[in-house]
Amino acid sequence: MDRAYLGGKKTRAEASLSRAIDEITAAGTAIQLIPDDTAPDIPILFLDIPAHSTIQGSGFQVLEGKPISGAGMRVLAKDGVILKSVIIFTTGLQKRVFESVMLEEITQGLALITDIGGPYYESRSIFYQSSNALTKLGK
């Protein structure tokens, strides 16, 4: 996939989406990200469910009933081929981390899936699992 159409909600989400697209583009990737509310390759869902609950109302049967924290990305694949990535936000995501989480989940939705741990990465990587403080991609 060299072009991804992202779909999502306006307001704070739209601003965070725009900054995430700018950051990924600035990283020199060959991927072109274009917002698209009608037929996104990577749907961004804003579900009216609390954090640390189960997914309900996603429109994707395979995701229904699966656990979710404040936000997350799910990859739907078959035989090692990504069919679709879906980004999910709950009502429990803290506003202060929204921009960081948007960048992390979109980047992971492009197949850079793994989170990382350990204190070394806390101030160095958007993929650091234990906090969402960064809003820039690192080396």
How confident is the prediction overall: mean pLDDT? 82
Write down the secondary-structure element order. EHEEEEEEH
What structural class should be given to the helix and strand makeup? alpha/beta
Uncertain runs are 1-5
C-alpha-based Rg, rounded: 14 Å
C-alpha end-to-end distance: 23 Å
The portion of residues forming beta strands comes to 25-35%
Report strand order across the widest sheet. 2-1-3-7-6
Estimate the global geometry from the Cα principal axes: globular
Biggest sheet, open or closed, and with what strands and sense? 5 strands, mixed
Number of discrete helical segments: 2
The number of distinct β-strands equals 7
Percentage of residues assigned to helices: 10-25%
Give a written overview of the molecule.
The chain has about 140 residues and is α/β, with parallel strands linked by helices. It has 2 helices and 7 strands. Strands 2-1-3-7-6 form a 5-stranded mixed sheet, with helices on one face. Strands 4-5 form a two-stranded antiparallel sheet. α1 links the parallel β1 (about 5) and β2 (about 30-35). It is globular, with a radius of gyration of 14 Å.
